[in-house]
Design brief:
Rieske Iron-sulfur Protein; 10 strands; elongated; 37% helix; alpha+beta; 346 residues; binds FE2/S2 (inorganic) cluster
Amino acid sequence: MSDSKTPSTEIGPVDGSELATTDRFADPGVPEHKPRLTDTDPKAAARSERIVTILFVLSVLGTIGSLVAYFAVRPDGTVPGVRASTLWLGVTLAISLLGIGFAAIHWAKSLMSNREYVDERHPIPSSPEVREVAVVALQQGVEDSGIARRGVLKGAMLGSLALFPLAVAVPLISSVGDDWNVSKFRHTLWRKGMRLATDPDGRPLKAADLTVGSVAHMMPDVSTEVRESGEWISEKAKAVILLVKLDPEDIRSEQRPGSSYDGIVAYSKICTHVGCPVALYDQQTHHLLCPCHQSTFDVADGAKVVFGPAKRPLPQLPISVDDEGYLIAEDDFAEPIGPSYWERLR
Ligand code: FES
């Protein structure tokens, strides 16, 4: 290997062995150290310290704001109520976390030591001497951070870090013993005789409108009164289904009587993993993919899981047609829709 640090001016085709044995590029070394404004100007350092303190104080205000929002803006079951609660919690928690994050970044970039070190690679594990040096370096880091000298900033940082867990702990603790009403997942709007309507335009669909390979996103055909009620959005979210028309010969699962009609099957769109909407249907394989974590369900085989983290098949909605040929539900889902939860072992 050449000892020269001068880069070669001849650039031509080289093979791997040549690259390994030729020092074609000089080590550029460490760029010249440039002190920051805060290293040379005490006023700039004081200004930076004020900014960091203000950011930590903002975080404290954000945490307090999130606690106030949690108790003052409760979701009342209506869509505007849920939106207002989510908005206020989101904004205040963002201020709380971003305050800590930006303060830490600004502190590190402007106030902590910016001395540059060259740290040679060494075998693992480190020798006891090196570990001792590391301990000294850590202590030096604490010294460099200036936390011991900056009392107000230290107080602001400790205050923001100490208060922030309350934003998570208080809602959790205050909800212990609440009625989480998980039984609401056991029932949806579907009832015997209710027509299936296209989502979102609400048009009832006839079985004759579907050809083999057709896929349709459907919801219950409900009255205008139900649609305008505050419960409609959450009830619709539970009841949405995916309708697929298969060649009846392709259906492999043992279908319960009345669960499919002329090759048309209907499954809950709520993934049984953690509840994303499944929607990607492959007509060749009859596989239905959940885009969140790639759980794959076989529509021709009772929507059984063929791949991915989901543990249960998609619940099937039993369907048939009414006197006019419109698709109708024969009943509600036989089992709870969506992910497993603590009152349900599978
Ligand atoms: S939510 Fe569907 S795979 Fe995770």
